[in-house]
Design brief:
The protein is 38% helix and 30% strand. With 98 residues, the protein is of the alpha+beta class. The protein has a single domain, classed as YaeB-like fold, CATH 3.30.2310.20. A 5-stranded mixed beta sheet has the order 1-5-4-3-2. It is globular. It starts with a strand and ends in a 13-residue tail after the last strand.
């Protein structure tokens, strides 16, 4: 199993999305968090589950929510660079690195 690390800006995006869903309906925040937990479980076990999107960066599209998770496989670590709403401008996260 691979470990999953979030870029600091991806952590902020996660917090913003959770706050947004909490304001609409608290159960939505829990559902959003659960879908991200499923994502983490899936890529931890099967890192290549999502197709390459930009260079070596992969894009995992959430099922219930209009968000995508952009990540890269770095040896035994999955680095999440962004958790972005699908209507955001493409590749806005490109300059992020660890």
């Amino acid at each position: 199993m691979n470990s999953v690390r979030l870029h600091p800006e991806a952590e902020l995006e996660l917090e913003d999305a959770e706050t947004y869903y909490e304001q609409i309906y608290p159960e939505l925040r829990l559902a959003f968090r659960r879908e991200l937990e499923v994502f983490a479980e899936n890529i931890s076990a099967h890192p290549k589950i999502a197709a390459k999107h930009y260079g070596s960066i992969r894009r995992y599209v959430l099922i219930r929510f209009p968000y995508s998770v952009y990540y890269e496989i770095k040896s035994s670590t999955i680095v999440v660079y962004a958790i972005g709403h699908n209507s955001r401008r493409p590749l806005y996260w490109r300059g992020r690195s660890f």
